[in-house]
Amino acid sequence: MFILEGLNTASDPATRNVTGMEPWITQDRRVVFQPAEGRYLTVEEHTVALPDGTVIDDWLWIITPDFVNVLVEAADGRFACFRQTKYAVEGPSLAVVGGYIDAGEDARTAAEREVGEELGMSIADLIDLGSYPIDGNRGAGVAHLFMATGASPAEGLAVNDDLEEQELLMLDRAELDAALANHEFKSVTWATTVALGLAHLDRTR
């Protein structure tokens, strides 16, 4: 039985059992939309039982591929970013390395592969910054965030097949801090990856 995490529905927050919150339980699931055999998107309709006994018959659930984002720090201390466009983003944005996880691939392997394909670099260390559902209520895939350190050019690795035009930038710490503060990373996962990566550096150096 599939389990959805959700909020306790008690009307008074003071009465909630914070340490023993019950999950929402999926009693049934039906595919209602699946273009291209579901490679990039499947929409399901779930029957969901809440902890208080309420049953919702038409809870929409979105399935998209899990993906990785990686903040890459080069061996010289600068950070690799792209200036690029995305269909859902207004105007140019700064971005980090990222891509979908291939079938049968784990997130760490995907992160290392994407750094190689997009930057032509190998890395010395890969730090796991956490995995986060895109939408806490509807699913929409999981973002696996990483920071790579000690990156350096490796012969024969650059195989970038992105549809968007990209400009590679190497930013120092002050430039990266300013770009994050000025909202130049316009996707929530890009901004989160940078923020968590910089917080990791501040804790460990």
Mind explaining what this structure looks like?
The chain is α+β, with helices and mostly antiparallel strands. The chain has 2 domains: 3-63, no CATH class; 67-204, Alpha-Beta Complex (Nucleoside Triphosphate Pyrophosphohydrolase), CATH 3.90.79. It contains 3 helices and 12 strands; from the N terminus they run ββββββββαββββαα. It has helices at residues 107-119, 173-181, 188-204; strands at 3-4, 24-33, 42-49, 55-63, 67-74, 79-84, 93-95, 97-100, 121-122, 125-135, 139-153, 166-171. Strands 5, 6, 7, 8, 9, 10, 11 and 12 form an 8-stranded mixed beta sheet that branches. The chain has a 4-stranded antiparallel beta sheet with strand order 1-2-3-4, with no helix packed on it. The protein is elongated, with a radius of gyration of 20 Å. It starts with a strand and ends with a helix. The relative contact order is 0.17. Residues 5-18 have low confidence and may be disordered.
